[in-house]
Structure formats: C-alpha cells, structure tokens
Amino acid sequence: KQEVTQIPAALSVPEGENLVLNCSFTDSAIYNLQWFRQDPGKGLTSLLLIQSSQREQTSGRLNASLDKSSGRSTLYIAASQPGDSATYLCAVKETGANNLFFGTGTRLTVIP
Amino acid sequence: GAGVSQSPSNKVTEKGKDVELRCDPISGHTALYWYRQSLGQGLEFLIYFQGNSAPDKSGLPSDRFSAERTGGSVSTLTIQRTQQEDSAVYLCASSLSATSGNTIYFGEGSWLTVV
Predict the structure, then answer these.
(1) Which residues contact A6 (CB under 8 A, 6 or more apart)?
(2) Best CA proximity match to B104, nearest among A64, A66, A44
(3) Which helix (H) or strand (E) holds B5?
(4) Which residues neighbour A71 within 8 Å (Cβ) at sequence distance 6 or greater?
(5) Nearest-neighbour CA in chain A from B45: distance (Å)
(6) A44 and A74 Cβ atoms separated by less than 8 Å
(7) Strands of B5-7's sheet, edge to edge?
(8) Best to test chain A binding among B35, B104, B105 (most A CBs inside 10 Å)
(9) pLDDT for position B100
(10) For the segment A4-51, what is each residue's pLDDT rounded down to a tens digit?
(11) What is the per-residue DSSP string for B68-113?
(12) B4: which chain A residues are within 8 Å (Cβ-Cβ)?
C-alpha cells in the first residue's frame, strides 16, 4: 500500500526566509502528485499539481518538484510571509487508482 | 457553483443517531470524493463516484456508512447509529474527471461531533 510521509511535522521560520517542505512516497507508480494548503478549521486548497511526466511546477512564490524514481517531492516557498502559515499536505494519485493518498502534513508557522 | 459546498458545516449528534452530510460539487465535475480527517490524523479515503459508474466504496470503514449521488451531482454521506469514533471532519471534493489527472477541489468540510 502506498505510504506518504511528510517531514518535518512542524516548522517555524522568520518572515522572509526561503524554505523547503518534503514529501516522500513508497510506490513510484504514481499518476500525479498534488500539494495542498489547509488553514485551521478550513478545507484544502490546491496549490500545485505535478503530472508523473513532469519534473516541476511553479506558481508565484511556490515551486514544486517531483522525482519519481526516488519517491520524493519538495515544495519550495520563496520569501515566506506570515500569511503562508498553514498546514501543507501532499497527496499522490496512483496509476489506475481512484483515490489520493495523503501525507499527514507539515504545519508551517512564519513569524513576523 | 463557484466551489464545492458542504452542509451542515457543523453537526453535534448523540451516539446512536443517524446523520446525513451533503455535498454539492462544482458544476460540471463528474468525479466526487468523500474523505474523513480525524484530529491529528491524515485524510482517509471513504468513497469515490465517477459519472454513472458504480462507486468505489473500498474506503468505507463499516456498513454503518453509505453514500449516494443523485443525478450525477449532489452527494449524501449517511452514517447510521453514530459512534464517538465517528467524530471527525468529513471532506468532500470534486474534479472534472479523475482519469484525466485534473486538480481536485475540496469543500470546507462538515465537522461532526458525536457525544
């Protein structure tokens, strides 16, 4: 069964720092990988979707990379802001499967 | 609609009662998912609908849980004889089509507390 791990579970950084969040998965036969953001008491907001044939995707200050062979993805956040404080979740969709497998997330706090 | 809509946003129920949670997906989205998120836990897949195909119920934790999707749009998740361990956030999501690898959009969830 696919297992998705996110380390660290929590991270605090001062405003303005660049940071990297990590996601690893055990089965490389994935269809795509998606990064989400979840604010307290809210649902999930999709940030970036990387198809299995892609190596990275960028949106504004966010850049997500995918290395299928090593079972890893990273989410890079440039010039962090207090508004970036949230829990970040990665999820993989396997080829031929209907559901997403989620990590337990990294809780990010950006200190003003 | 503009986004995935879920109701109720909060529900407190007594142990043993039945509850119904509703999800209204984004218009035109054929794929619909239900997930459960317990406190401090990751998201747990419950059930998946794609168009008029038979749903994938492989994630439903027990026969007290059921879901239906009428007319390929609105979905209802029903939990019968609720137990305290059913307390969680129930999240609904939709996408244009699961097979095309489209972005999945989530609602804000229904927070269920069983007392």
Answers:
(1) A21, A22, A23, A24, A88, A89, A90, A103, A104, A105, A106
(2) A44
(3) strand B5-7
(4) A24, A25, A26, A27, A28
(5) 7
(6) no
(7) B5-7, B19-24, B75-79, B65-69
(8) B104
(9) 57
(10) 999 999 999 999 999 999 999 999 989 999 999 999 888 899 999 999
(11) EEGGGS-EEEEE-S--GGG-EEEEEEEES-GGGTPPPEE---EEEE
(12) 43
Q: Beta-carbon neighbour count of residue B25 at 10 Å?
A: 27
Altogether, the residues listed in chain B come to a count of 115
Q: How far is CA A20 from the centre of its chain?
A: 9
To which residue do tokens 């497998």 refer? Answer: A101
In chain A, residues 70-89 whose CB comes closer than 8 Å to chain B: 89
Cβ–Cβ of A43/B43 closer than 8 Å? no
How confident is the model over A54-66, as pLDDT tens digits? 999 999 999 999 9
